[in-house]
Design brief:
The structure is a homotetramer.
Chain A lengths: L1 E4 L5 H13 L3 E6 L4 E6 L7 H4 L4 E5 L19 E2 L5 E2 L5 E5 L6 H13 L4 E3 L16 H15 L2 E5 L3 H7 L5 E4 L7 H7 L5 E5 L6 H13 L5 E5 L17 H8 L4 E3 L1 H5 L2 H14 L3 E5 L17 H20 L1
Parallel strand pairs in A: 7-8, 7-14, 8-9, 9-10, 10-11, 11-12, 12-13, 13-14
Antiparallel strand pairs in A: 1-3, 1-4, 2-3, 5-6
Chain lengths: ~325, ~325, ~325, ~325
């Protein structure tokens, strides 16, 4: 149950709603986001919601049978578009392309990637400055200095920054230089990180867990939303299966299923999903026909010299080709 | 190693080739198909293939490092098109749409489905007359009589028949009424059935095993090919994973991987793959962008009354819509 | 619903039972096994079973809510022991050890293995004469001649033969030389083969499918049972998962779950399950504590020279050691 | 490559070693633990290690080809025993039983569980005070106050505390009240948390990721070890597969594989692994025969009233029974 409150609701009215819901054995949790105030009810008994709906201070009330509530499309039928400012929108008829290297490696690489983006009308650049690595002895990224350097160039070019945040203590230092905080597949259920990102006024893109179910991804989004932040993107990036001809199994089935279950935009990551350079293009195009609101993929001036993930990274010529084909594919889909 | 033989090779020349290969520690297996005669060599030592290649009776020789040989694209770079006669082709620029019910249920249903196909220019109709069922107490299909009935109507309408063969003993009785023998996901590694289908002059469509790897699917095709039958289609129909929001996980990654590894046409089955009616369309379109040479999906005059698989079956209106969109999507892809 | 019939039931009484069940919207299937006659009812309505139970010709009646019926422990609470003759029993307090090579390779190997069995009191020897192979170019086993040779020696030593049957056409020729027909993991859902094995008066051991669920294994057993053959063993042999440090993932969870759901004996195959020689012993012992009624594992006089599966095969010294430990472990478990 | 340094090594000697290794294209990382000082070398070239081994300041040097180093048994052949003080040891001939509720719920429950432990000679009690929950609206545990309450009672009874730490910020406040910090399955690759636990002088038990490979678990342990903390336990708690007859698939194969690859103790968690109360016992006993150094399982005074996980929790009578059988099983195994 989702109860949307009027801005001017009195504390007394709110108390009465909570008491009334308690009578029906519903526990209400208060949620305040950038956009509105809600009471989220969890419980199992059945009752006539009009008995609550007519109480003063309530602007709307919905029964949501899913275990996730605020991210459910049963509540918010209209698709959400995330507005990143400067005319950059994602979702609900706004298709997003995000590209760039696995790791930010230095100024020259930043400059060349931004040129590539600018030349092709790409407004969102991805790149890692904090890298999750299986081995403690591997390169862990350029850190905050790399981010600041990147930000300088990106800002000048009107390009938004998409980058992974790995831990709570990084949020504050990264905050002013980031447009989209990415939560990696190993952190999809790092509930503490999700809680903290709920308090931030920046878009959060949550990647599906390495073997996370679609429902678990929606629960993770519910954490961020109920923490106060409604600006959420979901990202399918491949799951772990028995098949080892591909790095992961990009699960495109998740895209129509998610589009049906949630109002949030859904992004596909074919680079990590299939993990083989020559197959990134068909998977990117397929994910658009499956219904994706955007595609994130890895590109690099010289993939064979990339610090990480070179085997799945396009060079700029391949990237340019892909961008054209993605736009044509999206145009066809939009006409359907 | 694949050695293609000249038609007029003498037994003595053949013997000498076998002996020579033996000297290099290669075992040769003779393969005769509808199209040509081959000697397939398995072994591990390295040698200059010209030492064999110049021997009399050999028209061509190739090193194929894959464990599957005749189905490998390393040998046959040009993509194969399967010719079913009457202008029906599949693969290498010929896109195939196959539709029809899960089970053939009776004359009226056959008639209506054929009308639907004819009206929309569909030349390939699917349907089951022998049904694999988990429980021995379930409906197992109309059998050979259903097939004959279907054949009568299909022939009159110029429509080809795609249907599953479950066991060796059915091949002969079904033979004259079938255009494409389908091998189901539970039989992908029924090597005996594959051997016998190698002797048949009809196209064979092999579905990927329920948890079969891409390589295993190629090995299964190698059985049919080396048995003597070069007319083979491969079909991705969803694998088993931990995710249970969908019936199976249609693995579209397999499509570009297969197109890269083999010259055989690749078909996608979104109905079994995702198993949810409303999501069949996006997955069908996605599979085309992923590179599929054809799509097979379930349709029925009244899905809610179908004997089986109704939950994933389109009605004819939805089917008609999908056919149009698939053709537009294929056209876009062809232009790339 | 399972209705056990009296031997002397009249056709008229049977007809009346079928009619009555039809009134309750239950479809009855007749099943005759080596042991008894049954009517198996499938349907969903609820009714008082006494209305059928009191009819003439019925010796007993049970509601079985599982989709599998005759193999369910809800019907037959007492555990089944399979009697192979000559004092060899499996299940319900009779622990079975089966060992031998992956493939039967020749007389000397047969002789040595039988000696090894005899010396250690093992009454069941495994070995393959028909081998399922991914590649059509691999060794496919010694065939029926190998089986006859083996039989001669085994019979003389009082040892029972466990071997895989791959296709219907092999059943008859193998019949007189086999004690336990093994159905391999690729054939678990080869329903035609299961149907035919239902007509045979020999024990059938069904291996779990490569990615088969526990329920699917029970359904496959139901095919054999309802086909007329009550002598069935189930075998856990490892499932396919994302983990590739082991050949398969031997799923010991399946053992207590199966022991709870069915009255049939359950065998564990640690050789195929984990696929690494040095780890076969701990997994064999673990499967006993998990509740297995028997263990099947591969042993060979010279594993490093075995035609197949050498990497997971014990030599006779290791095998002897394992046999002792298995017996001690089973003894401890029996005391619990 | 692992270089163990002498305590009194001079900075100059250390520098020379690093330089020399650099000449061989090896990068050295300094690691200081509670026990010793190391230089960990990663690189791929081959050279004669004696060229480094003879340099001053080195006490020992080992080539370790695994990607994990300090946790590898190729370096430390002897099994590690973790000493928790007061005579409580785990690993290398010291078998550990840990039991208690999923969540700490209140004083009475704490008291009863401690009585149960004390009565049965159990020295390690598990319980959650911070609970990871999929839904943000669920009970998240009693927190630090619950932990302090628990600690008071446990200390008096000479019982050690095993509890999950979910985030870096909790480490300090929990530190004085915890004996074993448990890292949950959703945090196995929370590298930041692992880094911080490397700085703590308390034992850390790392659970295998929900779909984590065995190698990934070892890498996670390498993070803690190279962070400075050698006191590490690994815990197999079930992986995610297609099978849904059980909550997870407890992967007992991982136990012998881990015991072979690492010197660290390995614990099994059958409660989460199989997730069904009546099957916890056989899986616990099986894991001992598979080679586990300990078993952790859930017990509760009144499982049916537990706040969480009641369906997989034993009551104290069942727990007592299991403890006896585990000890007998361990005794048998020790004799092998």
């Amino acid at each position: 149950m989702i109860i949307q409150l009027e801005k001017e609701i009195t504390p007394k009215s709110k108390e009465e709603i909570i008491k009334k819901a308690g009578d029906f054995k519903y526990k209400l949790t208060e949620v305040k986001t950038q956009v509105g105030d809600y009471l989220i009810g969890t419980g199992k008994s059945e009752f006539d919601i009009r008995e609550i709906g007519f109480m003063p201070g309530i602007s709307d009330i919905h029964i949501v049978s899913d275990n996730y509530k605020l991210v459910s499309r049963k509540w918010k039928v209209k698709l959400t578009a995330i507005d990143l400012g400067d005319g950059v929108l994602i979702g609900d008829d706004h298709f997003a392309i995000m590209t760039g290297p696995c790791s930010i490696e230095g100024e020259e690489q930043i400059r060349q990637t931004i040129d590539h983006c600018a030349k092709n009308g790409i407004r969102l650049m991805r790149g890692g400055v904090y890298k999750p690595r299986s081995s403690p002895y591997s390169f862990r990224g350029m850190g905050i200095d790399g981010l600041k350097l990147w930000y300088e160039h990106a800002k000048a070019a009107g390009i938004k920054i998409v980058t992974e945040v790995m831990q709570v203590s990084q949020i504050e230092e990264m905050h002013d230089y980031v447009d989209i905080f990415q939560v990696g597949a190993r952190n999809t259920q790092n509930f503490n990180l999700l809680d903290e990102l709920g308090k931030v006024d920046k878009t959060v893109m949550i990647k599906r867990g390495i073997s996370g179910t679609i429902d678990e991804l929606l629960y993770s989004a519910e954490y961020v939303f109920s923490g106060g932040n409604e600006k959420i993107l979901l990202c399918e990036r491949g799951i772990r299966t028995f098949e080892n001809a591909t790095r992961n199994t990009l699960d495109l089935n998740a895209i129509p299923v998610l589009k049906d279950k949630t109002h949030l935009p859904v992004i596909a990551d074919p680079s990590h999903g299939i993990g083989i350079r020559k197959h990134v293009e068909p998977m990117a195009l397929a994910s658009i026909m499956a219904g994706a609101d955007g595609v994130i993929y890895e590109s690099h001036c010289t993939p064979e010299e990339a610090y990480s993930d070179g085997q799945q990274t396009l060079d700029f010529k391949e990237s340019e080709e892909l961008i054209k084909k993605m736009r044509m594919t999206y145009e066809l889909r939009s006409g359907f």
